[in-house]
Amino acid sequence: MNLDKMESGVKLLLEGMGADLQDPNYEGTPQRVARMYQEMLTPQKNNWKTFPATDSDLIVLRGHKVVALCPHHLLPAVITCHVGYIPNKKTLGLSKLARAVEEHLRMPILQEDLAEAVAHTLEERLDPKGTGVVLAGRHGCMTFRGVESDGDVVISAMKGVLLLNPTARGEFLQIVGRP
């Protein structure tokens, strides 16, 4: 990331809004905003530590919250993530399911693309029998402007058994509950 360019962009944005950059309230704002975006877009790396598969039918991380940036308005979306899979030959360290979501937050991303990216990554890394991702997001672009709705947008991505077998899919959705 180029912090100097980001700071310059924030200065231009503030000037475009008519803000007085000499006002003490704006002192350091371009630097703070640039660092904020750097922090938001630099999640910790996932080491993808795996273990031999157990006899688990389904492993689910439920209710993991992340903040993503919408590429359309650069406003935050607070997304509650439910991620699960049916192991095949290996299982993932439990915290790594959360990291599997966070590693895709390096740039602004659509919620639809995030759901698909997480499901695809789990498929690629684990070769599970099935993968399910349900994301429920509250989007700043809908809350603070336009329609001003506080409703959730729910997106799902299912792969393998969780897509093709209605019983397995139903169990996953029952565990996840109403997002």
Which strand order spans the largest sheet, edge to edge or round the barrel?
Answer: 2-3-5-6
CATH level 3 topology of the largest domain: GTP Cyclohydrolase I, domain 2
What's the N-to-C terminus distance?
34 Å
Reported CATH architecture of the largest domain: 2-Layer Sandwich
Encode the helix/strand succession as letters: HHEEEEHHEHEHH
Helix content: 25-40%
Mean pLDDT: 92
Oligomer: single chain
Which stretches of 5+ consecutive residues score pLDDT under 50? none
Corresponding CATH superfamily of the largest domain: GTP cyclohydrolase I, C-terminal domain/NADPH-dependent 7-cyano-7-deazaguanine reductase, N-terminal domain
Work out the strand percent.
25-35%
Structural class: alpha+beta
Instruction: State the total count of DSSP E strands.
Output: 6
If you had to describe this structure to a student in words, what would you say it looks like?
The protein has 7 helices and 6 strands. The chain has a 4-stranded antiparallel β-sheet, with helices on both faces. A two-stranded antiparallel ribbon has the order 1-4. It folds into 2 domains: 3-40, no CATH class; 50-176, 2-Layer Sandwich (GTP Cyclohydrolase I, domain 2), CATH 3.30.1130. Helix 1 (3-16) crosses helix 2. The mean pLDDT is 92. It has 179 residues and is of the alpha+beta class.
